[in-house]
Design brief:
The structure is a single chain. By secondary structure, this protein is α/β, with parallel strands linked by helices. The chain is built from four helices and five strands; from the N terminus they run βββαβαβαα. The protein has a five-stranded mixed β-sheet with strand order 3-2-1-4-5, sandwiched between helices. Strand 4, helix 2 and strand 5 form a beta-alpha-beta unit. The relative contact order is 0.23.
Length: about 140
């Protein structure tokens, strides 16, 4: 059975999502979730996984430029444990050190102002994470 891959760019306030096509070759920005607490976020993700035939989740993991963990890295690791404990789905991690910068560059090229468009940045960052992952499996 063909399944899509969901990529997550995790943040304290917003979570950017991207989704692959069924052939797992193309990543596209999907949506940005706002959430009030971890249960709220889990419920939203659970619905997305069920509604979109998701077979794998790829999560961007933020290291600092030296490749070391930061405060945000441990928040993301906690978030990953939460998904693993509740959603029964395979999870892969991908280094996301440069994805937000990359997303902003793409938006500049498209003449989209980045200041007021944080939700767009999150979705695009997630699609970059997903595209990188898809290239490793193709």
């Amino acid at each position: 059975k063909l399944e899509r891959i969901l990529a997550i760019d995790y943040g304290d306030v917003r979570v950017g999502l991207a989704i692959s096509d069924l052939t797992q070759t193309i990543a596209q920005p999907f949506k940005t979730l706002l959430y009030s607490n971890s249960n709220d976020l889990l419920n939203q993700l659970d619905n997305i996984v069920k509604e979109n035939d998701i077979g794998l989740i790829v999560v961007g993991i933020p290291y600092n430029m030296k490749g070391e963990d930061t405060q945000q890295t441990s928040k993301v690791r906690k978030f990953i444990s939460l998904i693993q404990d509740n959603l029964m789905i395979e999870i892969k991690l991908i280094d996301e050190r440069l994805t937000s910068l990359e997303a902003e560059k793409i938006m500049h090229k498209m003449n989209i102002k980045t200041g007021s468009n944080k939700t767009k940045i999150d979705k695009i960052a997630a699609s970059i994470i997903l595209q990188e992952y898809l290239q490793t499996i193709s």
